[in-house]
Amino acid sequence: MTLDITTFFNVINNELTTTVATRHGINPATRQPNPEVPLSTAEDLDRAVAAGRQAFKKWSRTSYEERRKALSAFADAMEENKDVLAQLLTQEQGKPLTQAAFELQAAITWARTLPTLTLPEDVIEDKEDCKIIHRYTPIGVGGAIVPWNFPVHLAVGKIVPAVYTGNTIIVKPSPFTPYCDLKLGELAARCFPPGVVQVLSGGDDLGPMMTEHPGVDKISFTGSSATGRRVMASCAKSLKRVTLELGGNDPAIFCDDVDIDAVIPKAGMLSFMCSSQICMMIKRMYVHEKIYDEFRDKLVEHVKNFKMGAGTEEGVFLGPVQNSMQFGKAQNLMGSIATEGLNPALGGSIPDSEGYFIPATIVDNPAETSRVVQEEAFAPILPLLKWSDEDDVIARANKTESGLGASVWSNDLDRARRMADQLEAGNVWVNAHCEVTPMTPFGGHKASGIGCEWGVKGLTGWCNSQTLWVKKP
Ligand code: NAD
Predict the structure, then answer these.
(1) Residues with Cβ within 6 A of ligand 1?
(2) Alpha carbon of 202 to ligand 1 centroid (Å)
(3) If DSSP codes are grouped into helix, strand and coil, which group holds residue 192?
(4) Which ranges of the chain have pLDDT less than 50?
(5) For residue 38, which of 19, 127, 270, 291 is within the disulfide window of CB 3.0 to 4.6 Å?
(6) Is the domain of 379 the same as that of 398?
(7) pLDDT of residue 114
């Protein structure tokens, strides 16, 4: 059955419901309103929590095989509707259609792959009089709080591990991008029993309502470090389990022995894809002084050719940034280039346009203390920095409260490993950046997060640890 993408509902207990008051998002390419969506109240959340708690009683006792079947149907439903969802994703998020299709495909891959993992059940002791087993049991009702940069992949990346491990889940999309997530809820309603997967759209007050709610047992939050702190403080009151996937300011260190022509296309894409609105992409680029000038000139030449425009236009690589708040932040940061006397090698200003468009900007060797280096831009403003001493560049790379991702690029793998081993981040790549799979745990160090998602380790984050003692009479 195909999806209608013109009307939008909450999904509570597998029923499509609406609310008295509604709200809407904005198409960032045109600044025109998108359709109305529900504006959930505390009562809507109460109903969803009650349904989630009721469903948990049965769902937590279903077999992994049964859950795999439901998840496989969910993956099939996304696959059948991937074109229309990609179109909707571009309309609400702004990213080019090709990148929207890529996000849908990632979500489908996560839904198909995570359920192939198995959680360990260890026999710790098996003696004549006693058997001790350690195992993982589901937690209860989960709350998924999702950001606006990857609304589909990050929602599915929470739904799948939660329900696969026997939990029920209530998804709260970002108010900026509720559309695809509401449709995911409709697809889920066709695949799971009532109350297992629910989606509520709301305003800024719905997230705090969820973190405060006594009937929610775990929060899986993806968003900024500032909000993450608030989420953790709120969850502390009821000792909710919490996983936090937060912001990053990833360094990438390019050594003097790299093949410049081969790495430039990757460096460009990994810094500017999704208009640089990815948590774990290159946000500070350190290039060895011996190759700096050639590297900068070639990177500028390459990035200059990225076509900017509405995500629906053929060949566009840089869509608009997602919302007015992000656009305002980027305008402010762009302004610091002039006020701090920095030198843009590309871009550096924002022309008037219909949408929230920010031209790709590369800042030529700014001071380490400048705002463009210290702050997570989350917009296409990249500082390119010179380095000469290995210890010094590692210290600069680590000198941030973030620790999400980091990379070293070199043809000498021993050197690269030596440097990579000193980087303080949850994800460290050699000759790559921004790579993830459903099988690999993903999380941040320092202010980039607590806990991780995906892989077996991520599945355990959706579980309680339980030790079972069986004494034989
Ligand atoms: P945000 O923190 O503003 O919002 C994230 C979500 O939290 C939204 O759904 C929002 O409605 C909700 N929210 C806001 N205040 C809340 C509160 N007090 N209590 C509960 N929920 C609340 O983040 P954003 O602007 O949507 O996303 C951008 C940020 O997310 C960037 O910093 C980026 O690096 C980070 N991010 C991290 C990852 C990761 O996996 N580590 C992935 C994507 C984005």
Answers:
(1) 145-149, 172, 174-175, 207-208, 211, 222-224, 227, 230-231, 245-248, 279, 376, 378, 404, 444, 449
(2) 14
(3) coil
(4) none
(5) 19
(6) yes
(7) 98
Catalytic residue among 186, 245, 375, 453: 245
In a domain, 351, yes or no: yes
Burial category of 61 from C-beta neighbours within 10 Å (exposed 0-12, middle 13-18, buried 19 and up) = exposed
Q: Are residues 164 and 278 in the same domain?
A: no
Residue type, 413: L
Range of the structural domain that residue 172 is part of = 10-246+448-471
Any domain includes 94: yes
377 CA to centre of ligand 1 in angstroms: 14
Instruction: Please tell me the distance between residue 37's alpha carbon and the centre of ligand 1 in angstroms.
Output: 20
Tell me whether residue 4 is in a domain. Answer: no
Domain total in the chain: 2
Quick: pLDDT tens for 172-231: 999 999 999 999 999 999 999 999 999 999 999 999 999 999 999 999 999 999 999 999
334 contacts 348 by C-beta, under 8 angstroms = yes
Same-domain check for residues 428 and 303 = yes
Whether residue 212 is found in the same domain as residue 285? no
Asked if residue 203 lies in contact with residue 39, where contact means CB atoms within 8 angstroms, the answer is yes
Residue 177 lies in a domain: yes
